[in-house]
Amino acid sequence: MATRLKWGILATGGIARSFAKGVAHSALGEVVAVGSRSQASADAFAKEFGVPRAHGTYEALLADPDVEAVYIATPHPQHVEWVEKAAAAGKHILCEKPIGLNQAEAVRAVYAAREYNVLLMEAFMYRCHPQTAKIVEIVKSGVLGDVRLVQAAFGFANGYDPTNRFWSKELGGGGILDVGCYPVSFSRLIAGAIDGKEFADPVKISGAVELHPEAGVDTCAAATLHFANGLIAQVSTSIQLMQENVARIYGTKAWLLVPDPWVPVRESGATELHLFRGADKTPEVIKLETEEWLYGTEADAFARALAEGKRDVPQMSTADTLGNMAVLDAWMTATR
Ligand SMILES: NC(=O)c1ccc[n+]([C@@H]2O[C@H](COP(=O)([O-])OP(=O)(O)OC[C@H]3O[C@@H](n4cnc5c(N)ncnc54)[C@H](OP(=O)(O)O)[C@@H]3O)[C@@H](O)[C@H]2O)c1
Q: Which residues sit opposite 269 in a β-bridge?
């Protein structure tokens, strides 16, 4: 590809910073502008990451003619609004997960992208990392035998703070939307891989959700997903527990432990998969070395799809997003 995809970053919080570093280590992208609700934040971000232009409003970022693709990094409740506005401005869009607060918002986002013929991807970065492709390859290879069970978790212990977005209902708090979306997406990926498809949706979902008595956000939640091909997935999430944050894929011949399914390695480096054959207690360690940065691989997957004229990024299509959001909707209703 001769020219690099010109990114504009919308918002200057934690993940926006990770993405800026990732793009700096990508093969196919460059950040040309940043937009913030405050000029001071935009200026500070631009200075720190060497971004040529800093806009004091999100609207100004979208009006920047040099920006080809926008990366939306606001809290979840603002996602759909800015996806719609970015699409109307003719920008291609990488939007942080979850793409909205529910499937209805996801439908609005996908509809906007189709209406304005722009590329849209929900930013599940782990889907673009070589480790995830390797996991799918292992499942398809048959080395595990018939895959029947997946266990996957993503949760963290965050002390109660009503001003923090994890604990604020207004800011889309709770574990399910923030990180529970990952094990759901992983389970759907494996269910699809078993059948040679990109993903599959469960036919039955049963969940259990604990809400915080004051904040009203989900603090601990688990669900069982049952797929038409027989796969059962057990997923869990939390914002107040120390969880193991691994994934396990069990087959009739062997099982695979994924020690770091979500952030295999943030920068370049090595990651591992552990294959346990038969009743072996000692795994065969599959080492993966990668030169790529996690958020750089995501930016490159997006740029590659765009260069090929696609309106979906194969690693995380909009149909996949809609299916994932439907599961989250169902899971969130499973309160006491
Ligand atoms: N894929 C991943 O690895 C990953 C990791 C972490 C988070 N995320 C996702 O990224 C999104 C942002 O997470 P974050 O951790 O970066 O959050 P954060 O640190 O709180 O930053 C969010 C940014 O959004 C902007 N914003 C717009 N409206 C806001 C409002 N009403 N309240 C607060 N901030 C507002 C602010 O930027 P300005 O002041 O510049 O406008 C703020 O700095 C979330 O949807 C989250 O799920 C993804």
A: 290
What is the value of pTM for the model shown? 0.98
Determine the Cα–Cα distance for residues 141 and 20; give it in Å rounded to an integer: 36
Mutate to test the pocket of ligand 1, among 9, 10, 12, 15 (most ligand atoms within 8 A of CB): 15
Query: Is residue 159 left, alpha or beta, with left meaning phi > 0 and alpha meaning psi from -120 to 50?
Result: beta
Q: Which of 135, 239, 143, 241 lies closest to 185, judged by CA?
A: 135
13 lines ligand 1 (CB under 6 A): yes
User: What's the pLDDT score for residue 268?
Assistant: 85
Cα separation, 336 vs 334, in Å, equals 7
Q: Name residues of the chain where pLDDT drops below 50.
A: 1
Give the whole-angstrom CA distance, residue 134 versus residue 303: 21
State whether the Cα torsion 228-234-237-243 is positive or negative. Answer: negative
Q: Which CATH number fits domain 130-291: 3.20.20.150, 3.20.20.80, 3.90.650.10, 3.30.360.10?
A: 3.30.360.10
Query: What is the location of CATH 3.40.50.720 in the chain?
Result: 5-124
**Which residue's structure tokens are 């996957």?**
152
Structure tokens at 231: 């796969």
Nearest CA to ligand 1 atom 24: 74
DSSP state at residue 283: P
The residues of the chain that CATH labels 3.30.360.10 are: 130-291
How confident is the model at residue 121, as a pLDDT? 99
Q: Which CATH class is domain 5-124?
A: alpha beta
